Give the backbone structure.
Amino acid sequence: MNALLIVAVCTLFSSTIAVDMSAVQPYDLTATLMFLQEDTDSDGYLTVAEIDAVFAKYDQNGDGRVSRREYTTMLCDANPALYQISHYLFDAYDVNHDHHLEVEDYEGFHAKMEVDGDGLVSQQEFVTYWVALFEDIETQEAQHVHGNSHEHGHCPAAGKR
């Protein structure tokens, strides 16, 4: 009887709720649409200033820093289906791992996408980076790296719709 209980407990704790990636599939199309939206001057490249402007939208209290709560709440309000993914994305953006997003993180994130050394993120660089990031989120989940550690409550906006 004790062996069955141990197996049941181990099964319970080893299971994970898979992140639903369907809201961002196909990945290349989602990444392309994101690029087109964020390339505000439509020149085919993202500058550091354009990346900074994207993140500034998430700073709800105007303190120059974006908390996990600010980021996930804003994404949840925009699309509740993205709530689970938002925690993984926050971690990817938090380049210095200090649990807040600031200019240093935005510029570091820009540098992660910019691979050819010209200081600009082309559409191809952007799409390539994002497809790999989305696939990595799937892989992390499949390997139980994150598991439920990013399930900080629920998306309040989901109940409003």
Observations:
- Residues 114 and 121 are 5 Å apart (CA to CA).
